[in-house]
Amino acid sequence: MKLIGSLTSPYVRKVRIVLAEKKLDYELILDDPWGPATHVTAHNPLGKVPCLIMDENGALFDSRVIVEYLDTLSPVGRLIPPPGRERVEVKRWEAVADGIMDAAAAAFMETHRRPEPQRNIDWVDRQHHKIRAGLDYMDQLLGEQSYCMGVNLCLADIAVGAALGYLDLRFPDTDWRAGHPHLARLAEKLGTRPSFAATRPPAA
């Protein structure tokens, strides 16, 4: 398998952590989807990363689709429960974490990639409100549990860890840990895992 992605994308990092936790071999192909030389469009019509190229079965895109497929490839460390209430709860965690990533990426692009006269500050504030609301929700839901779903690592933790890591990367001056002690504790624990350490994005 080949994974097309960038080192700073939290969605790509989520997939890479799953690959590491599942002990699956792959080749990482770096690509800048915003650059003129991008080649991800040859495999994903939306021109986004991550994109997983499979030997005989074409390509998969969208991190949620990719991680669900990867979890079926090996019985090692199942990360997604079978259909039922527990699975829905894991996917709910993933949806909130991905929503935080979406809002953070949108705010970063607006404030760092758009010329200042064209920036919409009200829209950026709206994205930061989404981030704060998502963090509040997850911190309360996590509580004193060791992991998002109790005592074992699952996809929920990986998605949350990728989102928190992206906030550290793009908004290092924003102390999201203040007021979110449960998430701060989880992030510290996840940071010691080899899968998280090996995929930590380079400093901006």
From TrEMBL:
This is Glutathione S-transferase. The lineage of its organism: Bacteria, Pseudomonadati, Pseudomonadota, Betaproteobacteria, Burkholderiales. Its EC number is 2.5.1.18. Keywords: Transferase. Gene3D superfamilies: 1.20.1050.10, Glutaredoxin (3.40.30.10). It comes from Castellaniella denitrificans. The keyword Transferase applies. Residues 83-204 form the GST C-terminal domain. Residues 1-78 form the GST N-terminal domain. PANTHER family: GLUTATHIONE S-TRANSFERASE OMEGA (PTHR43968:SF6), PTHR43968.
